[in-house]
Amino acid sequence: MAAFAQTCQFTGNQMVCDNGLRAQQFGNQTFYSDGRVEQQFGSMTFGSDGLSSQRVGNQTFYSDGTSTQRIGNQTFHSDGTICQQVGSQVTCN
Fold first, then answer.
1. What is the pTM of this model?
2. For residue 8, what are the CA distances in angstroms to 5, 11, 80, 83?
């Protein structure tokens, strides 16, 4: 994560981030502007880039060894990044 805050806005099935990343969700698939595609089956998510994840309660465990934990409106990443959601906007730093 860069040293500056990154903000993403969620509207309906679309996400737009201030770093230029965009995504659109259709059913259980999410298509990203960088070419990645994610497919979700229950608590498991599989990415076209080989990264997969499993959600267990308020924690998500990734196949690369990283994890996140959501507490209230904040998500704590194992790399030290903290994201906060206010309404439909998420800011990470």
1. 0.84
2. 10, 10, 18, 10
Separation of alpha carbons 7 and 26, rounded Å:
22
CB 42 within 8 A of CB 35: no
- pLDDT tens digits, one per residue of 24-54: 999 999 999 999 999 999 999 999 999 999 9
Count of domains for the chain: 1
- Residue 55: domain span: 6-92
**What size, in residues, is the chain?**
93
| Residue 35 DSSP one-character state | S
**52 within some domain:** yes
82 neighbors 5 (Cβ within 8 angstroms): no
